[in-house]
Amino acid sequence: MNQLYRICTLLFTALALVPFWMRGQLTIVLNSLPSNTPMNDPLYVAGSFNQWQANDPKAKLERNTAGKYQIVLFPAVGPVHFTFTRGSWAAAEGNSTAEYSVLHAVHYDGQPKTVYVSLLSWRNAQQTAFNGDKRGTVAVLDDSLYIPQLNRTRRIFLYLPPGYYTTPQKKYPVLYLQEGQTLFQGNAFQNEEWSVDEAVDEWTLEGNYGCIVVGIEGGGQHLMNEYSPWLNTVYGVGGQGAAYANFIVSTLKPFIDQVLRTNPAREYTGIGGAGFGALISLYAATEYQHIFSKVLLFSPAFWFCDVALQNHVLGKGKRNPMRMYFLVGGQEPFYVLQSMQNIVNVLRHVGFENGEIAVDVPAEGRGVIAFWHKKYPVAHEWLFEGLTTSTVGSAVSVGYSLCVYPNPAVEWIRVRSAHSEWQQVQIIGLDGALRREVWVYGEEAIAVYDLPRGAYVVRVRAERSTSWRTASWFKL
Does residue 418 have a pLDDT over 90? Predict the structure, then answer.
């Protein structure tokens, strides 16, 4: 026993003599700099650990013995986000095309860790600090994330909602969207965009919880192969979709859940896209129903493998509740609408109810980005309405109703919920004040004409129940 005591004493003494800077440190080393980096400009790291200060003197990089710039940090355990500047946001790090900001994300476990970074460019456009109060962050999370299932790489875009860095206790739902290069800003080749960031900014600032959006760059020459699980013998492409969907589920989602504050449960996870991106999204959602619960499907190219997709849905059946938003413009080819209707019929056949499927066919719509831009806010709100998300360390809480309508409201609303008889309805302002409390039978109209303009949360309780459910929200 004395011998064991002496050994333990020696070990603790040796550990105490290890310098503090060798314990629990995160070392960031710059492997390379853009060729146009001014020789005498200082380099700084700005991140979640220093309130995104562009020229924090404590975050200035210095050359190490190998001549490379580096810095040693002691951040809190958990996700760490950072980018680099030359002293101001007007001279901040950019991606390979200098079009986007870059957000480096690592999970720090408290043990000594070294991260190596290569700076690809300095941005050509004016940039402000990450995640301002009234707009979210749009950045490239990885310029070439490896896809082991297909042995190729892909650029990953990221949107973080307003307040992400000022509310560290919150976990967020996540929506994975295809063709990420069209979601947040145009470029020299495609000047149109979905404007997803502006839409979710506004949705969040109206009092909704917020949402992380992950955009996966389209595969270029591989796109039709990756977005179809089955080979189309007429066109001679397709067949890699199962591997691509597995990449999202097995590689990308675990990475996102590790380096961001997400709620990883299926109730908080969605997938979507347009055209062929919608095709692979529906396949992934029905294949991995334990992962996804929300699907955004714009101008879907189901016609490309109509029968195979129908058979897939029939084979999988309904294993979990889901919300699916279908959009086809009235000016799109008839076969686009017909193939969508075929899939909707099959989904209903296997058990998905009308309240889980929204079908939007505006007469003026065509399958182009401008159309998807216009309809995205409506689809996003419908997919995520009534969803409450947990804070770090709290229990998961989910509440749904089928809908509160009309929304926006003018004089009255009706609440369609799981309660078909008497139900108690509360209308609550975003300030938490109870504005109205009534008992209604089924979907009786509730007057709201005398309430102030704004957004309201609706809660519903069945006559014989003691618990409330957050049904939805509406605007006046």
Answer: no
